[in-house]
């Protein structure tokens, strides 16, 4: 299991044991890492991950607090990080998305207009290296949702929106753990838009396959590394 996962498990145990409750302030990073027998770097990554999924609230100049969510919800939110690599269904969802979304993108090509293309470009330009992981994932959902909607098939759109919603947490975790995730995502989005702009459905479809497959391959690799 990855060291960050171990740190998250140990914080989870503190909540289960009653050492931490909603609203409580965590001990200082140095003290916490020493008491749990973990490095400060792994503890820092764990805190960052738990902040993204709203288990912890990091207040600059004040400290890190457990959020006000009830214990059951806190534990459910934490569980997905550790259990992600054991859940084959997430990989299966990505596999289905890889089959359907490129086809939807190809269908959407025929419905593109200059205004739509410009809007997609503006969506991409609103994100940069300073954008938070949450901001990047929000952009990713909006970008793909806009294209899929233009496929003109309401059943396909609804199905893909459901698939996309169930893969959000994996995409957040990729953003936290993979270097250059923002730059890579934006470059792939730009390539898809340019293919749509010239009306090349086959190219847009192929680029979408590569884009969706990248997340699937990362998740598979991360899962295997976590199990090692």
SSE ordering: HHHEEHHHHHHHH
Instruction: Please state the average pLDDT score.
Output: 83
The CATH architecture assignment of the largest domain turns out to be Up-down Bundle
Beta fraction of the residues?
under 5%
Number of spatially distinct domains = 2
Looking at how many chains there are and whether they match, the oligomeric state comes to single chain
DSSP E strands, number: 2
The CATH class of the largest domain, by name, is Mainly Alpha
User: CATH superfamily of the largest domain, called what?
Assistant: GntR ligand-binding domain-like
Q: Give the overall shape, derived from the CA principal axes.
A: elongated
Approximate helicity band:
over 70%
Strand order of the largest sheet: 1-2
The class by helix and strand makeup works out as mainly alpha
* Separation of the first and last Cα atoms: 7 Å
Q: How is the CATH topology of the largest domain named? A: Four Helix Bundle (Hemerythrin (Met), subunit A)
Q: Give a short account of the largest sheet.
A: 2 strands, antiparallel
Uncertain stretches: none
Number of helices: 11
Cα gyration radius (Å): 20 Å
């Amino acid at each position: 299991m990855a060291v960050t996962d171990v740190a998250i498990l140990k914080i989870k145990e503190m909540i289960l044991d009653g050492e931490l409750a909603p609203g409580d302030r965590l001990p200082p990073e140095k003290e916490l890492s020493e008491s749990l027998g973990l490095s400060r770097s792994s503890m820092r990554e764990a805190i960052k991950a738990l902040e993204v999924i709203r288990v912890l609230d990091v207040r600059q100049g004040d400290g890190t607090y457990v959020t006000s969510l009830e214990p059951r919800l806190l534990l459910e939110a934490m569980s997905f990080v550790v259990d992600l690599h054991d859940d084959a269904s997430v990989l299966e969802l990505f596999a289905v998305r890889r089959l359907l979304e490129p086809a939807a993108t190809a269908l959407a090509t025929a419905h593109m207009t200059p205004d739509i293309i410009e809007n997609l470009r503006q969506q991409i330009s609103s994100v940069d290296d300073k954008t938070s992981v949450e901001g990047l994932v929000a952009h990713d959902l909006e970008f793909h949702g806009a294209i899929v909607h233009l496929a003109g098939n309401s059943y396909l759109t609804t199905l893909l929106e459901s698939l996309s919603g169930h893969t959000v947490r994996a995409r957040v975790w990729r953003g936290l753990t993979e270097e250059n995730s923002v730059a890579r995502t934006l470059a792939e989005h730009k390539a898809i838009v340019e293919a749509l702009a010239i009306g090349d459905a086959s190219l847009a479809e192929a680029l979408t396959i590569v884009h969706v497959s990248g997340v699937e391959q990362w998740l598979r690799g991360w899962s295997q590394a976590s199990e090692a």
